[in-house]
TrEMBL record:
Signal peptide (residue range): none
InterPro entries cross-referenced by the UniProt entry: Bact_Cytoskel_RodZ, Lambda_DNA-bd_dom_sf, RodZ-like_C
Protein name per UniProt: Cytoskeleton protein RodZ-like C-terminal domain-containing protein
Gene3D superfamilies noted in UniProt: lambda repressor-like DNA-binding domains
Length: 323
């Protein structure tokens, strides 16, 4: 819509408010139409059309309302604004400078500078002292560790020398099993057994040890099989409480699910992950809000519920249970 012509003659014939009112009435617009478009109150519209600009309290608001009203009526707002400035020249924005005798600029003090310098020196000294203390503690700890090493070595040598080679005859057979277990058979000689000569041979115990090792491996494999079977068994759900129903949810993809029961209480609100199953219990009817309907399977009373009819933009809203 082109701006309506706004001449000086029109301004001379009428004031600003009268020009706005005549333009509104010429377009068959009511005050309600202006209020709905400009979001102004009836009192503000009447004040603009009667030149009662004191109602606004600010010259900036008056100019803004005059401009908005004129543009709404397809008028050129500049002549109206010029007329307002001529009628109210005191409302022009002017810079104000005020000097108060009670405001004094802070003056630098020699004592303040001295205190600031002393505070900085104290902070630096404290930091250096703390670093020196940490270095001293580290050196003391290192010296103690070095001093304790010869003593430990001497105690180890003394323990090694205290055991004679011919004090005890021990037959030890260590076998490393494939599972990482070590089976050790230690046999102490009895006092009535004769000493073995250099050419004698001990009775082999390898078959018995291998048999024991095989039994251990079989037992370990049996335990692993039992644990895997136990992990695959789904936990047994307790029976449903009286007056409630249970709904099973199978997720092939992540989906947010919210459920409310008959009383309006939220009984389930969760972001269910893909590959999981969820169970919802509550007083029927249960109202379901499903965020990812294509990845959610709803099972009620052993039957899979068809979500197609209640799905919009992959979001489903269904109600299950007695109505």
């Amino acid at each position: 819509m082109m701006d309506q012509p706004f001449t000086t003659e029109l301004l001379n014939q009428s004031v600003i408010g009268a020009a706005l009112r005549e333009a509104r009435e010429s377009q068959s617009l009511s005050i309600d139409d202006v209020r709905a478009r400009l979001h102004l109150s009836d009192r503000q519209i009447i004040a603009l059309e009667t030149d009662d600009f004191n109602q606004f309290g600010s010259a900036m608001l008056v100019r803004g309302f005059i401009k908005s009203y004129a543009q709404f009526l397809s008028l050129n707002p500049e002549p109206l604004l010029d007329a307002y400035r001529e009628q109210y020249p005191q409302d022009e924005i002017q810079s104000i400078e005020y000097k108060s005798p009670y405001i004094n600029r802070p003056q630098s003090s020699g004592l303040g500078k001295f205190l600031t310098l002393m505070l900085g020196l104290f902070t630096i000294s404290a930091s250096l002292a703390w670093v020196g203390y940490k270095v001293w503690v580290y050196q003391q700890t290192t010296n103690l560790a070095i001093a304790s090493e010869p003593t430990s070595a001497m105690n180890k040598d003394a323990l090694t020398q205290a055991l004679p080679d011919d004090g005890l005859t021990v037959d030890r057979h260590e076998i490393s099993a494939s599972a990482g277990a070590i089976v050790t058979d230690i046999e102490l000689p009895k006092s009535n057994e004769p000493k073995l000569t250099q050419g004698a041979q001990l009775n082999p115990v390898m078959p018995e040890i291998k048999k024991t090792t095989d039994k251990g491996l079989d037992l370990s494999r049996s335990l692993e099989t039992t644990n895997s079977e136990a992990a695959n068994i789904s936990p047994v759900k307790p029976p449903v409480e009286s007056g409630k129903v249970r709904v099973r949810l199978v997720l092939t993809g992540s989906s947010w699910i919210g459920v409310q029961d008959k009383t309006g209480r939220t009984v389930f609100s969760k972001l269910a992950k893909a590959g999981t199953e969820e169970f919802v219990e509550g007083i029927p009817p249960l109202k379901f809000h499903i965020g990812n309907a294509s990845a959610t399977q709803v099972i009620f009373n052993g039957e899979t519920i068809d979500l197609t009819a209640t799905t919009f933009n992959n979001m489903a809203r269904i109600t299950l249970g007695d109505q």
